[in-house]
Fold this sequence. Notes:
Elements: E1 7-16, E2 25-33, E3 37-42, H1 48-55, E4 63-68, E5 74-77, H2 89-94, H3 109-118, H4 132-145, E6 150-154, H5 162-174, E7 178-182, H6 186-192, E8 195-200, E9 203-207, H7 214-244, H8 252-275, E10 293-304, E11 307-318, E12 322-325, H9 333-340, E13 348-353, E14 359-362, H10 375-379, E15 386-389, E16 392-395, H11 396-402, H12 419-431, E17 437-441, H13 449-461, E18 465-469, H14 473-479, E19 482-488, E20 491-496, H15 499-506, H16 513-517, H17 537-565, H18 569-572, H19 574-611
Helix pairs in contact: 3-4, 7-8, 17-19
Amino acid sequence: MPPPGPALAHIKQLRLTLGGGAPLFDGAEFVLHKGERVAFIGANGAGKSTLMRILAGMTEPDDGDIAYTSGVKVAFAPQDSSFEGFTTLRDYAMAPTVSLRGSNTETPAYAAEAALASFGLDPDRAPTKLSGGEARRATLARALAADPDILLLDEPTNHLDIAAIEDLEKRIASFRGAALIISHDRRFLERATTATLWLRQRRLLKLDRGYAAFEEWAEAVEQEEARAMARLETHLKAEEHWLQRGVTARRSRNEGRRRRLQAMRAERRERKIATTQQTATIQTERGAESARLVIDARKISKTYGDKRVIADLSLRVMRGDRVGVVGPNGAGKTTLLEILLGKRAPDTGEARLGENLTIAYVDQARAILDENKTLWDTLTPLGGDQVMVRGKPRHVAAYAKDFLFGPEQLRQPISALSGGERNRLALAVVLAQPANLLVLDEPTNDLDMDTLDALEDMLAAYDGTVLIVSHDRAFLDGVATQILGPIGAGKWVETPGGWADFEREYGGVTPKREQAAKPQSAPTAPAAPKRQTKLSYKDERRAAEIDALLPKLAAQIETLEHALADPDAFARDSKSYAANAAKLDAARAARDAAEAEWLDIELKREALSAED
């Protein structure tokens, strides 16, 4: 990776406390360089969005300073944008995004129009009744139209489909300034970032590598902190033993030692508080066992006007399947779900549900939530203070805590909740019900990484059947047993595995696949090619190469893992540790690619053998 460019912003000793509690961050420092694309990571509620608003000049810190290079222009794309007061999207995109010096000038009309058009938006359109994806694209267009030196992006992939996310990845990769990005989309961060900033225990840690290296780096940091905590405990026990021996603390020569003991106790208390991180606890139960065949769809089709969204789709969903449904916004994913569930009739064909199904459905609009009700009333529709969770009563406050809601939020109206909080509440309502078929339409929107991980773990362990609409590629790779997606002209195809398998097979869900999906006309008999009965020489040779390569990669991975497992490796030589970690990433990626290629060749061999 080339060295970073000149510094554009220097954040010095930032401190901010909200209310009378502990500070969100204290002594936060980092430098943002030109050419860096930084993933901004931190636990739910750690203060990432707040710190970004400070960088945008929209919130003042209690202490500290931000020094920008002269003439630097900053643009901010927040999670939630207000279009109030703007007649057209052009007016919105021309308005300054932040109030910093150099950033409060109006964007030229031609630049605003070009940016909006590049995101597929009409500049003359009134910014009312925009879909979630359209609003997000307008917010991004406004930020990029300003031609900033520093680009601040808070959850830029929310409500975007996979094609739009991949397009944004390319835009970020070609951005010449510095970008700071908060996102729950792990695959997006892996592909788009070159550095990582971690807000941990009120401090900022920076790694000069992208998010793809975060997990191993974080593990090394946490292991070092665990060792430091163990050393502190050892010293503390020794000092407490000294105190218990009855040595009077009133003597002046012992006062210093007593103060050190008190300081160590305070340090231990602070470390334990800092490392206690609240995470979501998401659980569900399958309920009664359904029939083995859950959904049987035969030649279903659906057309709206002159647009055919589903054409002759036949699909069987078996008990235990976790089907990921993908596709661009407007491709018909929700329509397909509703047809499969019997909520909407197809134009042709039929979809039958299996016997003994208990369905829990979270739709994209979160229609199960009443804006005027409180969290308490929503979770206890029959009154009282108990929630029936998988057939057992739980206090509403305890159950709400599993989904990261504090007691003070229980009497708040749902209208006051953020997008992520509404999503968590909808999941809490649905997952309290025993069900053997979970249907989740965009469950990952606005969720933080910790809640995403908890939801992923729950779905991976769930022994019922799941239908999931999602644009989160890493999430789909983690939970789906098969992917169903459109390839153009209303044609939908199904592949085993997650998103990576679907992408490898069909190249994604863009319209360019339409041509490949069209059936070829049958050739005349004389032109019929000779049927292949065995692997080509190229495939046979490649299979032999992979057979020789895999043991070498396995040995390399084992050696690197052994070197990185040394508990003192990071502290002894952090650069060598980082280099070995990068080599391990590359070796694992090469092994995975080789294994996937070998599997493709073997499947081809089996198919040819079956035809022979």
